[in-house]
Amino acid sequence: MRNITVLYLLFSVILSCKGQDKGENKKTKVTTYLAKCEGQYSTGEKLDKKDKSWSLNSGDVDKIMGLAISITEEEWHFSYPVTPCNIDINNYLYKGKKYNLQINGGSYISLFDGKTTILLGCDLPECKKYFLKAKEIMEEDTTSLSDNDSKTSGQTKSYQVTFDKNNYHDIIIVEKKTEGYNVEAKSNNKSFFNKNFVCDSIEIETKTKNNQAFNLILSFTDQYQNIFRKVVIPVFFKNNDLYLEKIFIATLGTSAKTGEEEWMKKEISKKIPLKQFDLNEIISE
User: Fold this and answer.
1) How far apart are CA 159 and CA 153, in angstroms?
2) Nearest 5 degrees, angle CA 12-CA 14-CA 17?
3) Residues 177-216: tens digit of each pLDDT
4) 3-state per-residue secondary structure call for 193-205
5) For 180-240, what is the HEC assignment?
6) Cβ within 8 Å of residue 261, ≥6 positions away
7) pLDDT tens digit string along 241-263?
8) Backbone dihedral angles phi then psi of residue 78, each to the nearest 5 degrees
9) pLDDT band, residue 45 (cuts 50/70/90)
10) Are 112 and 57 in contact (CB under 8 A)?
């Protein structure tokens, strides 16, 4: 009788352990999400094996969401590469609320709750292994021409650009004038654009990610040479001319909520030729 009791207890323990193992396996079940890739990169780069086989498991997604931070549309537009590969996840619980996620291979995530969209960026070193492309650091590629560079009229700088993926010699020439800067665009040694911009410094970004020919950045300083406003204009080449679609303005001002100085940003949709751009009109909007 005693032996039977011992055998019964052992059998009960075994069954209990098996049941526990099943519960643990259920808890640690990992879901794998495969990317959907369509078309190619805006730069013309074609999809490779790495792109087509990109995937994340549920643990990866949790880590990414823990590392990512909120970003503005302006930050996304200028700093995050857009890939043709996305991973879609429905009903993901984030900060106590369910969202539909779209994770782009360019290190950013879009969260949609049915009404609004939130953008998150994952730019820490730990993020790189999860994505196809890392956040871009555009500031390292920026060249500027400002009053601090020269106080005299006539200083010029030229920038190599590609307007229409042709074999022509395309350049942007920026010349310091007595008031402001003159921007001239040439293709195959023929000038097709010429306009003066009144500002304290001018920057040309030639490394872009959304098919624009270049980014034109106008800066304005106060009496202490501190920048208080920046106007960023992505410039596109269409029909043998330069056009803009959006304008990003960042102005240093005093917050009505905190009473402290902070950068206030706004985006203006304006689909016009660059030659028709009126800075005073845009700032007053």
Assistant:
1) 19
2) 110
3) 888 999 999 887 789 999 999 999 999 998 887 788 999 9
4) EEEEECCCEEEEE
5) CEEEEEEECCEEEEEEEECCCEEEEECCCCCCCCEEEEEEEECCCCCEEEEEEEEEEEECC
6) 252, 253, 254, 255
7) 999 999 999 988 877 777 777 88
8) -100, -15
9) confident
10) no
Cα-based distances in Å from 161 to 40, 171, 187, 277: 22, 5, 9, 21
- Average of pLDDT values for 99-125? 91
User: Which tokens is 211 given?
Assistant: 């098919």
pTM value? Answer: 0.51
**How does pLDDT run across 264-275, given as a tens digit for each residue?**
888 899 899 999
CA pair distance 220, 254, nearest whole angstrom: 17
- Closest-CA residue to 275 (of 249, 248, 239): 239
Q: What is the pLDDT of residues 211-237, one digit of tens each?
A: 889 999 999 998 888 889 999 999 999
Is residue 86 within 8 Å of residue 108, measured between CB atoms?
no
Report the side by side order of strands in the sheet with 97-104.
36-37, 85-94, 97-104, 108-112, 117-121, 69-70
Average pLDDT over residues 102-127: 91
Return d(Cα 73, Cα 209) in angstroms, integer: 14
Helix or strand (DSSP H, E) at 63: helix 58-67
> Which residues are bridge partners to 234 per DSSP?
215
**Sheet order of strands, 241-254 included:** 143-146, 201-205, 214-221, 227-238, 241-254, 261-273
Provide the pairing of β-strand 241-254 with 261-273.
antiparallel
